[in-house]
Amino acid sequence: MSASKLFSPITLGGVDLANRIIVAPMCQYSAVNGDVTDWHLMHLGQFAVSGVGLIFVEATGVSPEGRISPGCVGLWSDENQAALTRVVGFCNDFGNAKMGIQLAHAGRKASTDLPWRGAAPLPASDPRGWQTVAPSATPYNQAFPAPTALDEAGMAKVIDDFRAAAKRADAIGFEVLEIHMAHGYLLHQFLSPLSNQRNDGYGGSLEGRMRFPLEVFAAVRDIWPTHKALGVRISATDWVESSSWSVAEASCFTGALKAAGAEFIDVSSGGNSPAQKIDAGPGYQTGFAATIKREVGLPTMAVGQITQPHQAEAILRSDQADMVALARGMLNDPRWAWHAAEALNAQAAYAPQYMRSNRALRGEPIPGNPPIPSQ
Question: How far is CA 98 from CA 102, 237, 249, 258, 332, in A?
Fold first, then answer.
């Protein structure tokens, strides 16, 4: 068998990744006022020393009202920035993976309780809740309070919030930034006719529905350094027959993102309607990634029930995607990259403190770990 594609390097924008294994953004619902905690230090730190190419911090709210829940990470304050700086610094000191962040606004799906408390919507009258916003004043379902339809000033604030959070992400030292436009959150809500019922220039046709997400992207692109990498996560379909938001429209949108300066696309699906009927299974979203990769030509991440090394290798070798992003698989096995390297006869970086854990470990220890104490 020829050299593993999964463990071959790839360049996104100006950022070189050692391999194509991506730790997907995974909400932990464990922040305090948007600040990451020691839980995040442990959660992200374990991946940093385990041989992956890129780690994304979870969906990070660009404003307090942009969070999914009161426990979600944010990046709107100096305190948020300082807390994230500590965690990213630790990962950079002891690991060799590049660090990325996913900036997000939950829109009408914001202000919900923590999953282990039932994830019920929190009304604005609840001390932990707030008023949500959306393209139109249509709730996600009957259990959710009606959001406020964004007016011109509200949309301008969202753009400013994304821009400000991106500036903070750059100052922290993140090398990769992903804008969340998937899973039924605010920017996906603008893209889909199921949630966007506007009759102005930001609704109706595909061109109108794409307008605001493209304005947000342009604002971030304008300030994000060219030597770093900027991309987008999208849902390729709503999985609702009555919706026109499908892989065809997603491909058109991805083409517009590419023209605006996007350097990768992360292809997921669903999340925008309780009427969705998802045909889930191993690799069930890779076909969407393959179509967009073929039609648009951006470096593409595939996600969704990718759990086995040979499965990931096959996705890349068959040119369905350029990278694979794992979430639940990483939670189940934080040393997934080491075990994949063993299965594929490849090399993965490892923490020298752990070199005795597996005689099959190959490659070089992570350089600079442990860091040299300052004098």
Answer: 14, 29, 31, 22, 21
Backbone angles phi, psi at 123, to 5 degrees: -70, 160
φ, ψ (nearest 5 deg) of residue 321: -160, 170
Domain ranges for the chain? 10-357
Spatial CA neighbour of 187 closest among 165, 143, 164, 155? 155
| CB within 8 Å of 78: residues ≥ 6 apart | none
- With a pLDDT cut of 90, the percent of the chain lying above it is 90
- Residue pLDDT, tens place only, 297-333: 999 999 999 999 999 999 999 999 999 999 999 999 9
Residue type, 283: G
The fold of the 10-357 domain, in CATH, is TIM Barrel (3.20.20)
pLDDT of residue 60: 98
| Consecutive H or E run containing 60 | strand 54-61
Is the model more confident about 38 or about 357? 38
Q: What pLDDT is attached to residue 375?
A: 55
Catalytic residue among 29, 185, 202, 350: 185
Q: Is 103:162 a contact under the CB 8 Å cutoff? A: yes
Query: What's the chain's average pLDDT?
Result: 95
Active site residue 29: no
